[in-house]
Hints:
globular, Rossmann fold, 6-stranded antiparallel barrel, 22% helix, alpha/beta, 7 helices, SH3 type barrels, disordered N terminus
Amino acid sequence: MSSDLAAPVTATEPTLNSLGFAKAPADTRVVVAMSGGVDSSVVAALLADQGYDVIGVTLQLYDHGAALAKKGACCAGQDIHDARRVAERIGFPHYVLDYENMFRESVIEEFADAYLAGATPVPCIRCNERVKFRDLLATARDLDADCMATGHYIQRKDGANGPELHMAADPARDQSYFLFPTTPAQLAFLRFPLGHLASKNDTRALAAQYGLSVADKPDSQDICFVPNGNYASVIEKLRPGAAEPGEIVDLDGNVLGSHPGVIHYTIGQRRGLGIGGMADPVYVVRLDADDRRVVVGPRTALATRTVLVDEVNWLGDGAFDGTAERQVSVRIRSTRPPRPALLRATGPRSAEVELLDPEDGVSAGQACVFYETEGSRVLGGGWIRHRRIKA
């Protein structure tokens, strides 16, 4: 007996590849930002091995000819050479883009001005925000890429309201502090294939597996354009004559000594002050660039309870300024774990952060990154413009 009823059609979800696209890896183009280090090299090799259409891109960010002999910095001449060798071995196209002027205007100039103003800038964050995840990402789109992948240790997860940013599986390698300005639109285009790995040893093992020459290459330690960590020498070259001498004073304004320029000091510094004979240890607690004064005091004067932040980038759910107060965890230095705090929006892109446990060494110019209190999600962050000492 025939039937007029057709058999029901079962809808099937399209199969997604490992990067989240409903097509074959060979039809998925990925631009990999390659610094020449082991992390980004492994990302490129891994994706190429999985069959993706990989294009490697390395940025020349400063005069690498002057840095050929320098070790421990990214984007120098040797690093460009290393990235090219990886591409040749694995067999994918590789390009070097001259971003030197862009990097100087977007990162180095602000770095110098911030130090002269007595702040403590974090240029690696500005580089991610203004160069890698803005200009390089735009170049990746121009190359008809489906996404851009990097070697950062951070995780991108699909949430109920879209992609979310999460800390790396390995807390010792987590780089979420440096990526808080990543916008939702950028996050939709970015991929971080190493964020789930348990340790850096896993990355090096993959590099050895693929026969990469950078498998044992040391990690970068310094800011790429600051040789040997000597910030003052770089600033003096960028702003000749700007480092003017002044006085070292205590909290009451009493003169204790002199200094060669505020750019030689940072908040929390104890050694190298040149004011021996003090009964108790003293620390740099404030830099008064306008009056060319370095203010020192006891360690208790470093304890900060409240910080004011601006340029807030919000990655959490809902409107940022729609809630009077949120319980969060915050990280003020990349080397310190998140700590409990209260977050109060004071405008669309500004906030007051109350640290439940005061923290030492907080300075204007640093980043304040927000995290959920339970779990690994990054909620955003902002730049510290002012701090209030413990009441």
